[in-house]
Design a protein that fits this description.
This protein is an alpha+beta fold. It has one domain. The chain is built from 5 helices and 6 strands. The longest helix is centred in the first third of the chain and has 16 residues.
Length: 162
């Protein structure tokens, strides 16, 4: 193999090993800053997480079709009866009537104690780009907590996922 081809192959292999993949990031805890979280959602790392088999009407206040993804931490935690650990997260894709992505709703547990919903970061955006309508982006958002309080440790998603 010519020297240039060997160097090119070595460079490609090195870059391939150094570049993070979406799957490698799948276990990451989503950021809890709205701008950073939007970028994380746009990158789609959560798509490697366990998810519902099909979109359905929201059981809560989301006025769209939804498809829920659970972080591996939350998926495992839902098998038990205790509170969810810090870092547990869910991403709900908000879909329009045609099934096209129209936004996201995200919850991330940020402390061991849920503290009546204040230990969760809540984020909802109607749209998929910067400048879209942000409905929620904070801890303890009353709109989110008011609905999610009836779930086990603020999680309403039935488990196991169907």
């Amino acid at each position: 193999m010519p020297r240039f081809a060997r160097l090119s192959a070595l460079l490609c292999l090195t870059l391939g090993l150094a570049a993070p993949s979406v799957r490698a990031q799948a276990g990451d805890v989503p950021p809890t800053d709205g701008a950073a979280l939007l970028k994380w959602l746009q990158a789609g790392a959560y798509k490697a997480w366990p998810k519902e088999s099909a979109a359905h009407r929201s059981m809560g206040a989301h006025q769209t079709l939804v498809l829920t993804y659970l972080s591996p931490t939350l998926d495992k935690s839902l098998e038990g009866k205790a509170a969810h650990p810090k870092g547990a997260a869910a991403v709900k894709e908000l879909l329009d009537g045609a099934g096209k992505l129209a936004g996201w709703a995200v919850s991330v547990k940020t402390s061991a104690d849920s503290a009546g919903g204040k230990g969760w970061y809540w984020f909802e955006i109607l749209g998929t780009t910067p400048g879209s309508t942000v409905v929620a982006s904070d801890h303890g958002v009353p709109l989110c907590v008011g609905c999610h309080a009836r779930g086990r440790d603020a999680v309403l998603t039935p488990h196991p996922l169907d």
